[in-house]
Design a protein that fits this description.
It is a single chain. This protein is α/β, with parallel strands linked by helices. The protein has helices at residues 2-13, 37-46, 74-84, 100-109, 124-127, 132-142, 163-170, 178-186, 211-216, 242-248, 252-255, 270-284, 295-308, 328-331, 333-339, and strands spanning 52-56, 60-61, 68-70, 90-95, 117-120, 150-154, 224-229, 263-266, 311-312, 322-323, 326-327. It contains 15 helices and 11 strands. Strand 10 and strand 11 (326-327) form a beta hairpin. Helix 2 crosses helix 12. 49% of the residues are buried.
Length: 342
């Protein structure tokens, strides 16, 4: 019964509300490639004896007024903290300086300032002097030298593909073939291994390289990694073959992230993926509480984070109580629908 409920939750949030092309190809697309990952991510989190979860978020919108982090991501990260902390999860939120004020306000209003740690990542300039291991050590020291059992990225940009990462996806015995030419045409050398917005703007030098945490812990048997995204350019999307993202998302070849995670959740909005993940974990823990689906509370938190962050709508480019151009009433319908699933 739980498998059917989890699948319903996944299907509820896998609606291409932004018309980005998540399922342009009906055969192979961003929704079909990792269909079991939502269920597996829920079970991995729910099954831990002493789960510790570090959540990385904060997508910078340089063209917004003012330039700021977008509302998709931080609100979902806070929701996971609110939903899982009462279950005994030790949750740490991880972000850049430009997003920290919004999360700090959200944690305060949610009564989680004392129980949830907030880590501010090194600036791009500081990180430029660090190796991958140094960067990971920076995180661990500020996390009380505690290695999380789960490392999750929600709506967090990651670097684009290189020929090396493309070959790694195919395998040492495979040939790139026509994909090689398609890739070189879509991703010029100066755009390889760079972080992009969905519109193809290079923001590598404006954000901390948080993907290094996922690279540093990729082979750590203690840590399970999870990615939540909605466009192809987020950490975790490296689990989907580059050509699938290129074929489905307009301009997707350029922005497709090369960094994979153990489990990948693709949703119409990344925050929706967080809502479903939290609901799935609580279902499996027999702690499905209607109070976590409080739409009014979610709006109150979003309003405060927008005002004091500020956070901006990533599509509209303004401090609005909306997500990716979706007005709040439509956006919140997912919470109402999840509340009916059990």
């Amino acid at each position: 019964m739980s498998d059917a409920a989890l699948d319903q939750m996944r299907e509820l949030v896998q609606v291409d509300i932004g018309k980005r092309g998540l399922a342009t190809d009906p055969t192979r697309n961003l929704l079909t490639e990792c269909r079991d990952d939502f269920r597996n991510a829920c079970r991995s989190l729910a099954g831990g004896r002493a789960p510790t979860l570090a959540i990385v978020t904060g997508f910078f919108i340089p063209t917004a007024t003012p330039p700021a982090a977008e509302t998709d991501g931080p609100l979902g990260a806070l929701y996971l903290a609110r939903a899982l902390s009462p279950l005994g999860f030790q949750v740490t939120l991880v972000t850049d300086a430009f997003c920290a004020p919004a999360l700090r306000v959200g944690l305060g209003l949610a009564g989680l300032r004392k129980s949830c740690r907030l880590i501010v990542l090194p600036s791009p300039e500081e990180a430029g002097q660090m190796s991958v291991s140094d960067y990971a050590q920076f995180f661990l020291e500020r996390n009380g030298n505690m290695r999380p059992t789960h490392l999750l990225a929600i709506e967090r940009v990651g670097p684009s593909h290189t020929l090396e990462s493309l070959q790694k996806q195919i395998g040492s015995d495979g040939a790139l073939g026509e994909t090689y030419l398609d890739f070189l045409h879509a991703v010029p050398s100066e755009h390889q291994d760079r972080c992009h917005t969905m519109r193809g703007r290079d923001i590598t030098d404006l954000v901390s390289p948080a993907h290094r945490l996922f690279e540093a812990f990729a082979d750590d048997p203690v840590i399970t990694t999870i990615g939540i995204g909605d466009g192809g350019n987020e950490i975790g999307m490296g689990k989907i073959p580059w050509d699938v993202i290129d074929r489905n998302i307009p301009g997707g070849g350029l922005v497709a992230c090369r960094v994979p995670t153990d489990h990948l959740i693709v949703a119409g909005l990344s925050n929706w993926g967080a809502y479903a993940l939290a609901a799935g974990v609580r279902l499996l823990r027999n702690a499905f509480d209607q109070s976590i689906f409080d739409v009014d509370e979610e709006r109150r938190l979003l309003e405060a984070m927008v005002e004091h962050g500020p956070l901006v709508d990533g599509v509209l480019g303004r401090p609005e109580v909306s997500v990716d151009g979706v007005e709040f009433s439509r956006y919140a319908e997912v919470l109402t629908a999840l509340a009916r699933m059990r």
